[in-house]
Amino acid sequence: MEELLNKISLLLHEERIIKKEKEKRGEYFNIFEIMHAQSDEVHTHSAIIAALLDPKGIHGCGYAFLSLFMEKLFDSLKEEAKFACYDRLDLEECNIYVERYVGELTPDNEKGGRVDIVIEFKSVSKNQCYAVILENKIYANDQNKQLYRYKRFADDKYKGNYLIIYLTLDGHYPSKDSITGEEYTLKDGVDFYRMSYRDFILEWLSACKEKASSVPTVRETITQYYNLIAKITNQNMETSTREELINILANDKNISAVFKINQVYNDVLNRICNTTLLKQIKEIADDLNLDYKCEQTDWCKRWNGQFFFSKPEWKYFYIGFEFMRDNLSDFNYGIRYKNESEKGSQKDIEAEIRKRLNGGKQNSWWVSFKPFKYSNWDDDVFKLLYEGEIKSEIKQNIENLLEILKGIKL
């Protein structure tokens, strides 16, 4: 085991050298990360995917990207696709809708809402309308009866000539609440199909980059988006490193070690958070003369990885930091209510906080939050944790918030 880890450490050291050289050449410059847009489902992911799919779009590549998408989609589904064969769809007669309104949401959540992306086709004969409906999930939760009511809309609108795609980072199943209604429960592989950014979208974007080789601006935009998806799906290891790592691990000598390491993976991350990170949290609180609260032990579980800072006189709010997805991902910070009983009770203060912070997302617990500089914690981020960079960034965020919110009775 020690010999194996030494080999891997050497390999990863070599990869860090490669990455530093690429960083010097600007290959990791990414406008989406600079704008903190990596987790915005509507204005980043749905918008970019829809723009590339649109045959009338300003990318100037006609229906080339749409054709690649549909070919890959039908190849993935094989004979399971519900509507007519791909060659019967007129790609030029296609409309793309983002956040398509499908009616007012009914009190029972059985009908209505907004569909993330709808790709609507005419058949070659012009006699029939077909659709691909994409429910796009980056970090948001499923809504109650969400896929169920989209199926009801599609049944009424397209008379069975449609596909519903549930698109997530890793291809996971939707929640039972999303697929269950009064009349039936949707079936995976029959009523909807699961696709992932990790596989489907990355492979499609790779093909799009090749197709856009003669259009540099479009190609480079696709490249930046590809790199963003690779990062948030933990696929940004160098190809050469990945292959060499597979070569080292995929043999009879090391396979037991692979399984053993996998068994303690989350335990290792939790140990680091409960020692190194927690120590730094305490030091930040002492440096800034703040109280802190951190009761979690399973940092890898969604909403468990969180910690808060406050002053004794703060009655309603914390400055908070939280991993909002599993596996130490979607790390955000901002202003959060302290107690369940107080949630939403301080509307005037909420309004003033949002005004001063100039935006940010919100939910029932969080008055305003936005992505931390290092949103998804991989090995590079943990290295920065050991080096003190994460501590400095957390402390700077707190100091900025304290300055901006000065005078507000939190």
Q: Main traits of this protein?
A:
5-stranded mixed beta sheet, 14 helices, 45% helix, single chain, alpha+beta, 410 residues, 5-stranded antiparallel beta sheet
Strand order, biggest sheet?
Answer: 1-2-3-4-5
Determine the structural class based on helices, strands and strand pairing. Answer: alpha+beta
Fraction of helical residues: 40-55%
Overall mean pLDDT: 89
The overall strand count is 10
Q: For the report, how would you describe the main beta sheet?
A: 5 strands, mixed
Shape: globular
What are the segments in which pLDDT stays under 50 over at least 5 consecutive residues? none
**CA distance, first residue to last residue:** 52 Å
Based on CA atoms alone, the radius of gyration comes out at 24 Å
- By DSSP (H or I, 4+ residues per run), the number of helices equals 14
Work out the strand percent: 15-25%
The helix-strand sequence is HHHHEEEHEHEHHHHHEEEEHEHH
